[in-house]
Structure prediction request, 338 residues.
Amino acid sequence: MIPFRRILILAAVLVLIVIAGTGGFMLVEGDSVVDAFFTTVVLISTVGMGSAPVSAAGKLLAVALIAGGVGTLIYAFSTVIEFFMAGYFGEMLGERSVKKKISELENHYLVCGFGRVGEQVAREFMRSGEPFVVIDSNPESIARCRAMGVLCLEGDAADDETLVRAGLKRAKGLVACVDSDADNVYVTLSARVMSPRLWIVARANMEESYGKLEKAGANKVVSPYAIGGREMATLIMKPMVSDYLDVVTGGGELELRVEEFTMPAGSPAIGKSIVDLQIRQTTGAIVLAVRKPGGKFDTNPDPETTLAENDVLISVGTPAEIHSLEQLFAPAGASSVS
Prediction:
């Protein structure tokens, strides 16, 4: 039983003792409510005797109150000291602070599972400055999260209530990276039912789990082992390509970011071509691909390609260049956040 709950129980017991003592003195001594209450409180608090009972029944009641009430009061007092000294009070305030911060999040990500894969996902989000919340049922994993300064919730990621507490309906995306494929299926299914438009990326350890995760609602299914194998093959066969990809993804000395932009309504870039906007000269970023709504990616877009609302652009550049590109596409009067 947690100390805070124990305090509430002890407080209830004390109230019952006071009610019983007050009623007892009124019955056996004929005292008024105030006098009976006063005598009971004085006896329990050990500050004095008050008005001494006259009858034998009253004296026996006083002895019972001193024995039971004082013992309960002392135990309650020691429990309160334990509550503060053991840090439970600080933990409770910390949990309230976490709940408040999570309730203020919008367009954030949920990381379900904080194992080796989940921790790496969290570190990438931290490096990119993206808001996110970790959900894990393992107390040791939660302790690691807190040590990293990460917002986290202890609970089952497949539980609807836990997902709601993490702000699922306001979230932008979810990463299901629990160690078990079966658990990832449940997490994905629960999240998809609650948020049909949520972007979900799920981890699969076994190839036969791919189809199940896709049917459960995952937009993308990833195998860390397959990715690791491809990376190792690239390292041995094309080491320079691997070095270049490290640079592009921010793993090298020069940090480049590959970002996607959806052309917003009211953007001054709508109706203009890539060459008209002089994106490379103005921002320094490079447009790698363009996808029209409902179409496929044009991975080598013509400079004369005219941009329209809801077009998706894939661009690469440094954080400063990407920020300049966001400002170029932002609707008039809107501020851009990198």
Summary: The chain has 14 helices and ten strands.
